[in-house]
Amino acid sequence: MSDLIRNLPNLDLRGVRVWLSGAIPEPEGETPDVRSVLENWSGSDLERGILGFVQEFASLVMKYGGEIVHGRHPSFTPILLECARLQRRQNTEALLELCFSDYWPEEHPGDWERWGRVSKITRIAKTGVTENDRDPSLEVLRQYMAERCNAFVAIGGRWWSGVPGRAGVPKEFELAKAKSVPCFVLGGFGGVSKTYIEQNPRWSDSINNCLSVEQNDILSKDQNFVLAAGKIVSQLHILNGQS
Fold first, then answer.
1. Residue 148's domain is classified under what CATH number?
2. pTM (2 d.p.)
């Protein structure tokens, strides 16, 4: 790892667009909405690890010229916006793209305008306005992000124990794999990412990140968010040089 840290200043992630998937998982037992997840956030080591990774990883990606693509989850968005704000001081181009569906209205008036000062804002047209249009609208949004990215990273993620089919990380991971982009899944911080890995022993087949099965297994269990971020960014640099 000492070699990895020494080599970080020489990284080149220009042209890399990472789809960052995930969220703080809901507390034990089902909570029906995101606001409940955030209000009941317990501040566990794993939860702090998820948010620590988001900050560390996004900061590194942007520092070396890469871009983060994210579906505007409320538990990640404030951290990503702050990373983008700090990096925007050194770059004329925004290195964060926040994507969302018109199915969900602006939560606070002026949010989209404020976010647009430091990030790219992409609004995807909803498929309709009824409850039945929620999942189709999400699918259109995910298809857009899959087309935009050339790398994929997942961490945490809600279980949706009452409606397991709505868990986003597995759907987004499979979309990214179908596009043959390099994928990295961190299960060491809990959430549906961990559950997915446990329930799918061959999850690392065809993830195209040029790590061995053993290396992916070790990374997927890592609970040190600084080292995990460094490993992935270093590998993205290698892959970027091969493209």
1. 3.40.50.450
2. 0.88
